[in-house]
Structure formats: C-alpha cells, structure tokens
Write a structure and sequence with these properties.
The chain is of the alpha+beta class. The protein folds into five domains: about 10-190, GAF domain (Beta-Lactamase, 2-Layer Sandwich), CATH 3.30.450.40; about 210-310, PAS domain (Beta-Lactamase); about 320-495, P-loop containing nucleotide triphosphate hydrolases (Rossmann fold, 3-Layer(aba) Sandwich); about 505-580, Orthogonal Bundle (Helicase, Ruva Protein, domain 3), CATH 1.10.8.60; about 590-635, Arc Repressor Mutant, subunit A. The protein has 26 helices and 22 strands. Strand 10 and strand 11 form a beta hairpin. It is elongated, with a radius of gyration of 44 Å. Keywords: ATP-binding, DNA-binding, Nucleotide-binding, Transcription, Transcription regulation.
Amino acid sequence: MRNHPLVSDLSPVVTESWQRSRAFDVNPLQETGTVRFRQQDLTDLQLRNQDLIEISIPLMMRIYNLVRGSGFVVTLCDKQGVLLKVIGDDAPMRKAAQIEFVEGADWSERSVGTNAIGTCLVIKKPLQIFAAEHYSKACQWWTCSASPIRNPSGEIVGVLNMSGPFEAVHTHTLGMIVSAVTAIENLWMLEEKNRANALMQRYLESAIDTLPEGVLVLSKDNRVIHVNREFLQLTNLNEVQILGQTLSNLLQAQELSLLLATGLEIVDREVAFTVPNLGHEWRVLFSMKPIFDETGARMGSLITLRDMAKVRQFVNHMTARHPKVTFGDILGESRTFLECLRDARIAAGCDSTVLLTGESGTGKDLLAQAIHADSTRQHQPFIAINCGAIPRELLGSELFGYAEGAFTGAKKGGHAGKFELADGGTLFLDEVGEMSLEMQVHLLRVLQNQEVVRIGGDKVTPVDVRIIAATNENLMKAVECGQFRQDLFYRLNVIPIIVPSLRERRDDIPRMAQVFVRQLSQRLNRPGTRQVRFISDDFMHFLMNWDWPGNVRELQNVLERAILRATGDTLRPEYLPPEMLKDGVSIPRGTTIDLKEQVKRRVLLESIEACHGNYKAAARRLGISRSTLYRQLERYGLKS
C-alpha cells in the first residue's frame, strides 16, 4: 500500500479501513491532521453542536480526572470527525498540537486514514486502534479508543475518544469510553425528556390560560399548584393569594368537601360558592378530573369552574333565547293580516298552546317571537327548533336530551334537551308536521305531564314550557290520513292562528317593499353606486300582480336581487327576475314615485274606508286636522 509496511495480523476491520484509506489517496507518511475550522468558523461549529458538547463535557472531565498524569487526552468530535473539544495535561496537549490533533482538525478516514475516530464513524461501532494499526505516520505512537455517540433519535452525532502513548494503553480503556458514551446517551435522553416535559408544561399552561372557564390544578392534598387567568379574573384574586392554599380555603361551599373527598370524576355539577373578594354568591358548573400516576395512585386533580352567567349567555346566543322581534316590528295593515295579529295578541295574553298555520315564508317564526316577547314569559328563554331540519333519529335527543351512556359517543354527564333549556319560557316547534308518529307520542306525554325524561335515563325533570307550534301543512288532513296523531293535534291546536300568504294581503306589499328597500339598501351599501330609494310605478305593478309562492321571503329575495342589479336610485322592471316578466304585460310608464308618497296615499285611502267616508273620523284616526286631511286628499287626487 504505497510503501506502507503491512502488518500480518491486522484485523479485518483495520484491513478494510486501510483499503479505504488507500482509495482516498491518504499519504501514509503524513505527519499531521488537517485543521479545517479556525476561530469564528470553529465557534459556529461548536454552537451547532452545543447540546452534544454541554452533555459530554462533564463526562470528559470525569475521565480526564481518572487518567490525569498518564499522558492521555480526551476528545469529542462531531459526526464528520472534526474535533470539537480536547482535554488533557499540558505535555500530551503539546504533543497533540504537533500533529494538529486540536480543536477544528479533521480526523476522518478521508483526511488521515485509519484512526479510532474516523474508522468508528464508518463502522458505527466502538473500536481501539493500536499504534502501527494507524494508517498515517502522524499518530502511530498513539493508541486511540473511540465510541460513536447517538442522540435520542438514534442518529450518530459525534465520537468520544481517548488517545495516549501506545505503551500506556490498558485493556479497560475502551470499556471506560463505552461506559462514558452510555452515560452521555442516557443523560441526553433524560435531558430530552425533561425538555419535552417542560415544553408540554408550557403548552398545557398556555392552553389552560386560553380556556374560557376557571381552571385549578390541585396537588394530592388538594392544594392549588396552578391556576389560569380566567379564574383570577372571575374571583378577583391573585396567584400569591391562591397558590399553596387548599381549595376549601379559597371557595366556601357546603358540598365542596364532599365532592373533593370522593376522588371521583365529576362533570358539570352546579355549585354555589362564596368567594370573599366577590362579596356575593358565585354559581358555577363544577367539574373535577382526578390525575393518576402510572401505578394508578392519585397525584392530584384538575378542577374546572364554568361561570353560570357566562354559560347562560352562551346558551342564549346559540339558541336565540331572547327574540328581537315584537309586534311593533311586524309589517302589515291589510284586513286579513290584522285579524291574524289580533289572534296573536290574544295568544300572547295567555299560556295556552298556539298552532300557527301558513305557507313557507309567511313569517310564522317572527309571529312566534312576537307572541313570546309580548307574554308574561318575555324574560325567560325562547328556544326554537326546526323539527323538519333535524334527522328523525336525532330529534328525540335534541328535544328531550339524553343521559350519560345513552348511546355510543354520548357526552359525559349527558345533555340537556330543548325542553329543559326552555324551562320557564317558550319552545317554538317549527315544521311540527314533519315529526314521526313515534316522536309525537313522546311529545304528547311531555305536554300532558309537564315533565321530561332524558333518552336513556330514568330521572324525571319537571318543566314549565309554553308551546308554540308551526306548520305549512294541513294537519287536520294529516290526522285523517293517519300521519299525525289526533290527540296531539288537539293538544297543539288550542289557539289556531292562520298566517295569510302574501297574495292574500297584497295591500301590504307597497309598505313592505318600502321598508325592505330601505333596509336592504343600507345593508348592501354598494360602493360607487347611488343608494336605491325609489320604486317606479311599473316595477310596483309587477310586485302587486305576482302570486308570490315564496311569500315575504320571496319578496325580500326579489328586492335584494333588484337592488344589486340597479344602476341608479330607482328600481325598474328590467331588474326583476325573468320569470316575473315572461307574460310581457304592457304597462304605461308612469312617473317615478317616492315610496313615502305611495304609502301616504294608501294610508289616507284605508283610513277613509275604515271610517266609511267620514272625513272627521278619518282625520281623528290619523291624528291630523280636517283641513290638513282635505289638503292631502287634494294633493293625492282623492278628494272626489
């Protein structure tokens, strides 16, 4: 091998390494290694390997203290074979420096041929290279013992090596290095776990701090060891006042000691606490989750406290608890609709069950809200549920709730149904005709007994709920066909209210159109266009003569589409849907009329008709003088 003396008893590992060294064209007569990293580059390299260095240095110092004065140096290399740290006595350190066995030098096989550091990186195993087994002359007076270091992922990231005079080598030298590497890897694994635990702790604390409920972590003896921001805000306490305290010292409640003593999981138990800083009772949903170690021994508990006021706010928001619609918000002055409103006001004055019947889009839901808002239950929940929009197999659990374990995936602690949520208030059952016969039986039982049993449970819960039902079907006909229970029909149909279709109340269209146009124009607020304020006569003619199968909802839809298509401040027929124009009715083009003027004219007419032509009574009805009435009649061409 290029004049290099062959050793007859070389091991296969060393022989193969020599062959690689020759293939790398390493000079066997070279007397030094190669320094590849100096000053700033070396510092950068050490920073990149900071974890390896910090964990290894204490073990390197321990080995050095054991071999101090024996001529050995202890080195740490990166995964490329570059020396990161060298520790030793002055004399061997000077000798090492003579052959560039220093920090920043490359001692891979490719650089200096066979040596413990470079060869161990190739074979990925511990080994010892003795004197003349080294390929290059530079280190043939050394005996080197090295072992690869693996990180917690199992990846080789470096080498621990000990080099010294070949005559001072001991059979246990390699074993010492292997033991040290094992210790390094174990320490690294422990460090990684500690970092992961610390990171997880930070994540958990951050997650807990973002929760909308108060959270406390208790020790085994029920002392607070962590608290989140929400709890501090809810109780007006600070961490100094809380940490280390027992929960019973912070929050006083009769049943608290019993709840803690059970050591069992508790979900959403309503508890009334006394908190000194608040000065009033604090009602919460109390939950406790015991925490166990790997042996099953209890380590502590996780407590969550959900403020009942916030829970109610959330439920109100999700279920539209307080309706915004009152009778004053409902548009309509036609005779048929006024009769409907009269019946609805009567219904608002009592607690009897109401059945609203009318086509889709007529505003049955608005009428139901108005009845509730004008009733004695107006400050209690208004809960709406569309019986036709929920799958039949789920409707029961939505209406009546379910107990814990009622079915696979059932929520721990169960789930309150709409009847429980509406307790004290009104439950609006929309599309009640879509309910299955089986569900009708359950509904009838609840209405008769005024109590509910959750699905899968046996606890009877009294409920005080006023029912308003709505349908777009002929329920009497459904009864005759066997599709709706007669007894339930009569239970619902105590106050029947027929909600007229829009084609049955055409006189209301101009006023409704005016209001809808104003509301929609403000909401749409199209940039760069004039706000729509007027409706042309011919556009109104089409509105008045359309059948409106979709009723008020369709009218709103048509007006919104027209506003979006309009290029000016006036709605014209060309903005209407094609199906409304298909008959091609010829309409004389009149002047554009401000919607307010149209409405005033119609109000005058209706007032005079209602007073049977008596102008004095009509003026009194309108709240104006007779002279003002005469002027307005003349203005609108109605004096005759």
